[in-house]
Amino acid sequence: MQVVARPSVPALVPFISSIGYFEGRFAHARERALPTGGAQLLVNLDANVLHSYRLDGSAQVTHGAAVQTASSVPAVIDPAEQRSVLWVAFHPGGGYPFFRAPRDELIALDEFWGRDGAVLRERVLAEPTPLARIRLLERALLQRAVRPLDPDPAVRFAASVLRRGDPVAQVSDALGWTSRRLLRRFADQVGLPPKRYARVSRFQRLLGSLTGDVDWARCAVEHGFHDQAHLIHDFRAFSGLSPTGYRPRSGSDLNHVPISTIARA
After folding, report:
1. Full DSSP string of 65-106
2. Alpha-carbon distance 135 to 133, whole Å?
3. Which domains are present in the chain?
4. Which residues contact 99 (CB under 8 A, 6 or more apart)?
5. Which of 63, 101, 179, 203 has the least CB density, counted as fewest CB within 10 Å?
6. In 3D, which of 98, 191, 88, 202 has the Cα closest to residue 142?
7. Separation of CA 96 from chain center
């Protein structure tokens, strides 16, 4: 079962790209989650735990409600923790009104919201339907906002044009800002420096363009890489894989790459 909804509260629309509930099982034991440039709030309703593993084997472990801040590196996750999960996917910078001090890691929600974060999972579980759980999570976000729900138009503009491939220098010129001012404002709200966000965005555009037999040299030219070697370098940096080793979970889950196919009980 999967239920994906748009925010029902107009004040949340500028900050949330999707909010939803998923229930099911996967036929693999681990998978790589690739960076998107955005943050997520995750609530594991199957068990009160969430794990995130780096490619070097180090791990982060939190309670079942946590925030995955914007990242530029892949993580290894356990699909068993997605058997029943509620999530919020934020637009770039969309988590800024709700969570202080974004860092590139998985952070337990109670570190931001105190007791309200600690009991959110139990409150969600008490709701009778997926949609009721989604709406409760919306109300919790509204109640726990730590900054005004006023989108920063400059940061929204910068994220939008960087996402489509405009150079960082061109963005700062369009805003009438120095590169240092753009760096500070963007990194503070989005959680990534603009140049790194631009690289992640280019990687995401590349993934979305891959179909059939791929001419990697042509892809490099079309997506603004210096050459094929540059494309391969960034592909490894953001996925931990070579381009030819990339096998996503499905055509609609381009950022989830199974590592093994051991069925989970």
Report:
1. EEEE---SS-EEE-GGGGSEEEEEEEPTTTTTTT-SS--SSE
2. 5
3. 2-150 (2.60.120), 153-241 (1.10.10.60)
4. 39, 67, 69, 107, 112, 146
5. 101
6. 98
7. 14
Q: How far apart are alpha carbons 75 and 71 in whole angstroms?
A: 9
- Please give the pLDDT value at position 262: 47
Q: Other C-beta atoms within 10 Å of 48: how many?
A: 14
Tokens encoding 172: 């700062």
Bridge partner residues of 88 (DSSP): 19, 41
Closest CA to 16 of 141, 186, 113: 141
Closest CA to 35 of 209, 231, 255, 191: 255
Sheet holding 50-53, edge to edge: 59-62, 50-53, 75-77, 31-33, 256-258
- List the structure tokens of 147: 């900054």
Structure tokens at 75: 């993580």
Which residues have a Cβ under 8 Å from the Cβ of 209 and sit 6 or more positions away?
Answer: 219, 222, 223
How is residue 27 annotated by DSSP? Answer: S
Report which residue type is found at 96.
Answer: Y
Q: Are strands 84-90 and 50-53 parallel, antiparallel or unpaired?
A: unpaired
Helix (H) or strand (E) holding 136: helix 130-144
pTM over 0.85: yes
**CA-based torsion, 128, 133, 134, 138: positive or negative:** positive
Residue range 173-219, pLDDT digits in tens: 999 999 999 999 999 999 999 999 999 999 999 999 998 899 999 99
